[in-house]
User: Fold this.
Amino acid sequence: MGGSKLGPKGFQAAGIACGIKTAEGAKDLALIYSEVPARVAGLFTKNRVKAAPILYTRKTVRGGVCRALIVNSGNANACTGKKGLMDVEAMAKLTADVLHIPYQQVLVSSTGVIGQPLPMEKILRGIPSLATKLSPYGFQDAAEAIMTTDTHPKLIAERMATGEGEITILGMAKGAGMIRPQLATMLAFILTDAQLETEILSALLREGVRCTFNRITVDGDTSTNDMILLMANGKGSSTPLYPGDERFHTFKATLFRVMDQLARAIVRDGEGRTKVVEITVRGARNSKEAEKLAFRVAQSPLVKAAFFGQDPNWGRIMAAMGTAEVPFDPQKVDIYFDGDLVVENGVRAKDSSTDKIKEVLKREEFRVIIDLHQGISQASVLTTDLSYDYVRINASYHT
Amino acid sequence: MGGSKLGPKGFQAAGIACGIKTAEGAKDLALIYSEVPARVAGLFTKNRVKAAPILYTRKTVRGGVCRALIVNSGNANACTGKKGLMDVEAMAKLTADVLHIPYQQVLVSSTGVIGQPLPMEKILRGIPSLATKLSPYGFQDAAEAIMTTDTHPKLIAERMATGEGEITILGMAKGAGMIRPQLATMLAFILTDAQLETEILSALLREGVRCTFNRITVDGDTSTNDMILLMANGKGSSTPLYPGDERFHTFKATLFRVMDQLARAIVRDGEGRTKVVEITVRGARNSKEAEKLAFRVAQSPLVKAAFFGQDPNWGRIMAAMGTAEVPFDPQKVDIYFDGDLVVENGVRAKDSSTDKIKEVLKREEFRVIIDLHQGISQASVLTTDLSYDYVRINASYHT
Assistant:
């Protein structure tokens, strides 16, 4: 959706440049606001080193209700000690003051460079002017303001009809690097005007993340600031949605589609990527083993460099699998590249030709299917290639 | 040592180009020969996908005695099924025939591209001519013939005096990529004319590998062909070395020094590397946790890209540590770059200046010391940076 379209009923947003990022006019401060108290659920990074806004917002989300979310990019407010925690509180307090809402209902999120104190004068000067820009049309600006190395904002909206009218689900995310979510994810904020209880919201978020945001990787590194929030303010449906309800099923499918699209958008905008590759491991004894193998292949620098070079080096896939600490029989493994059988029983398939594999590798997106022939479970992971640009972007992120 | 120097007494070697590698005149077939039966110990890749020569040689080493080792580069003979196993046997048989030694005393090793059948006509034509070139001066040629993406051969020799004369330890290795040994390593062959029992040889190899070859990483990937062999033919000492013996201690120290130098040489020649960085984690509760944390930092693509860019982004080190599944208190962590205190109690150290950190990052080799302040254990891991050249080399290795 473009900036001209409306978000869910009762939500407003804004995004401005307040000077945290050095690039002239680069937006770096976003605000999301619900006209009425919204239910909220959240998942947070499993990284043992947690940024100040994670520590703060995790606690606030436990209250189950929120009115606003203030986010800055360009600085992660991580590894910043006591000052970092005081800065988060100051951001929440000022936001609450200018919006005339309870301080306990303001969530805070940050993303960017680790280890530097926030430029608080700039942020505290920015918040009041940001609040004046709140608008039902401001989601595009907000999505821009949470970007770091992303090349474009990631904003998805879906609508569904209910007997009473229409429900909207809107999501925004930022990704690009340090992407290997562990039960949480990069930054992603999903808003809906559906009415749902907090526990149901939490369960939906957890289930949805498992098969979307937690099944992507760019570089296998996990951020100190990963956060995903799901807010529901009930302004679009007068009665709450409950499991068992027909509307609930449609809502759940729509929500998961939004999450899936955001997750894919993050990988498609992965740092320096020229390819998006879905690695599917099937025929596994259980889905945990399938996922472990798929991630091992999806994160191998040698496999990823071969994708970048369009090099039909399938042996690297076998070698990577062999290190996953999952038992499997190499002599039973089949590997397909977009439907082409390339490896059969662990050796090069008779009918496979290098030219055919190269044809597949030229595509911008393709699938690698690995069949273990050991069971009926499977898992898919979406990954990028490893390019010169990935190195370039990360060799000079700080300076 | 150069090609003009002698190896351990009673050993001979040779290396030739037999046409496996496409580059004109690139050596790709090596032979090592002991004039008398030598005791042998070996360690092999933990990768679940094992190349044919691994399966074969692992069994042969159990006999405890060997006379010769035939090695090819340019083709790993991995994921090659039954034909691969038959090819290894054919290599061992022909080598035994031309040297007039028992077939059960020939070891075989391969390195190179995975998943392609060996060009056996070339190899079988090469072995007889290789055997005619055997010489006490042939170790430089052999070390060249086991190279893949290495930029130079890795050959180390050390001598020690004993009451009876002199003992020599000579080692050669190949590395450069797919380097994250798991209880074994890339290819490394160490020869000595000392006299030792097989069990003692095995114990020495295991202990030495733990703190040398198993403490290095280039890209975190593990090869299907990792193999390290230690051979002792007894020609340099008329009496066997036993633990407790003074000579044994000198021998052990010398052997470990050879292993350490070879391991460091592998990292220094790591694919595309511009930096060599030693990551030390100290103040840990036990060495296992220290090692896990050190490896997590040493393998993070974001940390490695920052090293390449000489970017003083120490936050990435903290973020990488946080994903290691090792309990530690981020607020107690100190980090030093070559003696400069950069992080103190988890935040930027007061006296640290970005300029000072940049000074360290300009060096070709430097140390990062991470102090957890939780105990007295420590571990060090040697790693490389992640450069454009790493991507270039691995984007087109196959073709």
User: Anything to note?
Assistant: Chain A touches chain B through 65 residues (CB under 8 Å). Chain A has two domains: 11-268, 276-395.
